[in-house]
Amino acid sequence: MTEEEKPVRVSIYLSEDVRARFKSACALHKKSMNEVLVEFIEEYLAQNEQSPPQPKK
């Protein structure tokens, strides 16, 4: 994120078990749940977001 980008909150619903397992897995890798989710979302967008059309030459 750049200084110009304002962070916003996103909420999701998980079962208690999935949340606990995710939190433990993140802790094992010394990362916050937020860090892991942001990385996942950025990777997902890089693979799935359409590129803007390129101008014809």
From TrEMBL:
Q: Which domain of life is it from?
A: Bacteria
InterPro entries reported for this sequence: Arc_rbn_hlx_hlx (IPR013321), DNA_partition_ParG (IPR015354), Ribbon_hlx_hlx (IPR010985)
GO BP annotations of the record are: regulation of DNA-templated transcription
Q: What is this protein called?
A: Uncharacterized protein
The species this protein belongs to is Dendronalium phyllosphericum CENA369
